[in-house]
Amino acid sequence: MMSNNLNDSCDLLSLSQEKIQFGETLLKTLSLHNKIEGIQKLGRKIKQELSFLEKISRDESIKKEHLQCSNLTHFNALIQTLQELQNCQSVNKVFNLNEKKISVDIICDGGLTWVKVVARNPKSLAQISAGDTGYGVRSIIDQAEDYLNCAKQHPCLFQTPKIMFVFFSGISNTLSETLEELGIIVQGNRIEHHVENNYFTDNSDLSTKNVSHIQKINLDVSAMLAYVSSITNGSCTKYKFTTPVLIQQAEWESKRPVKPILDAYFKGKQLYCCETARDSFINIINIVGGPNEKIRGEELLAQLIVLPDNATASDTEKINANDNCFSSVQLSANKILQVGGKIRERSLIIFKFGDRIQAVTITSNDGFVRAAKQQGIYFVVFVHESRALTEQKEMKVVKIV
User: Fold this and answer.
1) Cα(158)–Cα(160) distance, integer angstroms
2) What is the DSSP string of 187-216?
3) Residue 105, number of CB atoms within 10 A of its CB
4) Cα separation of 383 and 202, whole Å?
5) Closest by alpha carbon to 375, among 350, 346, 341, 345?
6) Opening angle at CA 183, ends 181 and 185, nearest 5
7) Per the confidence metrics, is the pTM higher than 0.70?
8) Which spans in 336-398 are helix H?
9) What CATH number is given for 85-199 in this structure?
10) From CA 343, how far away is CA 339, in angstroms rounded?
């Protein structure tokens, strides 16, 4: 047993030395970019990491966890990405977002693009985003929303900076699609993950029953995207998609077209959305949407009444007085949804808006609806199958003759 412990100790020391040499190489590479703002600070962080590794190596107090949790992996990913980007001006630039501080890994394109570098493995990212983690651990979706909100508050040349996430170790197809729907530019190898097999589920049990008398519709961002998507407007059988999620969506769309279902549900009713939903939809479609999807997006927005996020039923044309559907939903001191896991802050704003104006919220966000139910909150909803914007992707795949 002692021999095994000795061998383990020697192996750890050897790995530690390799890490130290690796860090010294990173410092040499970093010296080639001295003119970029924040490089010196990044160099100091790497030196701190090396000092720690050297100390525990000298003291022979090194543990396996020290090497596994080393920040050198992230620093390497950041530096490698830095070398591949053009016109970089800052690294680790800190911005204020309300009471939080957001550190942007790389700023390039003269300030018009913010880049986050993610070195974490795809399986871990997917599990955290699905809520399979400890309380307080923030998912990549949380971080994406922070970046997007922060960029709006810090325009460059009168423009909101674009957000790019670079996944150094790859990203699951499902998670990349979710980020792209938010308006994030995603770079990194797309990896098929077993979680995707359960991505599409039967949502019929989630829709609220007996709501045909309600004349107000609240559109979630996911419903807007589905309504204007190329795949729901005639292209589901025209292209040979390569992404598993889009392949699945095209198959489902050919069997169960979403737009006719939504049109039937909208008939004779007034369509509403909150300002957060409208702004998010515009941001997403401007980045991810194709030319025809953008035209349909403008046509859809022209049909909506847009109200402030904190609007109530009195701000609408009609009031569903004392409707029992909503009496069991209203959030109060005793009914507060905790943000985290499937409960995203943006979605919570949109669903609470629908609740306050007493409208049926149309959505494909089944994860939010299920998570809310688990916390005892039953929103009045109609849940449809998810559809992504596809027109840009259609330009890169084979057209079926």
Assistant:
1) 7
2) ES-EE--GGGGGSS---TTTSPSS-TT--E
3) 23
4) 10
5) 341
6) 105
7) no
8) 345-356, 366-374, 391-394
9) 3.40.1350
10) 5
Q: Which residue ranges make up each domain of the chain?
A: 1-82, 85-199, 216-399
Determine the average pLDDT of the residues in 200-218: 78
Query: What is the reported pLDDT for 329?
Result: 62
In order of 180, 186, 222, 258, 389, the CA distances from 250 in angstroms are: 18, 22, 16, 11, 12
Say if residues 117 and 105 touch (Cβ distance below 8 Å).
yes
With bands split at pLDDT 50, 70 and 90, how would you rate the model's confidence at 115?
A: very high
Q: Span 216-399: which CATH code?
A: 3.40.50.1010
pLDDT of residue 259: 92
Distance from C-alpha of 147 to C-alpha of 150, rounded to nearest angstrom: 5
Out of 2-16, 135-149, 290-304, least confident range: 2-16
Contact (Cβ atoms closer than 8 angstroms) between residue 116 and residue 187: no
Residue 324, pLDDT above cutoff 80: no
Dist. CA 345–CA 280, nearest whole Å:
12
Structure tokens at 234: 């005639």
Band of the pLDDT at 73, cuts 50, 70, 90? Answer: confident
Topology alike, domains 85-199 and 216-399: no
For the chain, what is the mean pLDDT? Answer: 82
Give the span between the Cα atoms of 166 and 125, in whole angstroms: 13
Instruction: Transcribe 237-295 into DSSP letters.
Output: TTEE--SHHHHHHHHHHHHS-HHHHHHHHHTTSEEEEEHHHHHHHHHHHHHH--HHHHH
pLDDT for res 2:
36
CA–CA dist 271, 281 (Å, integer):
15
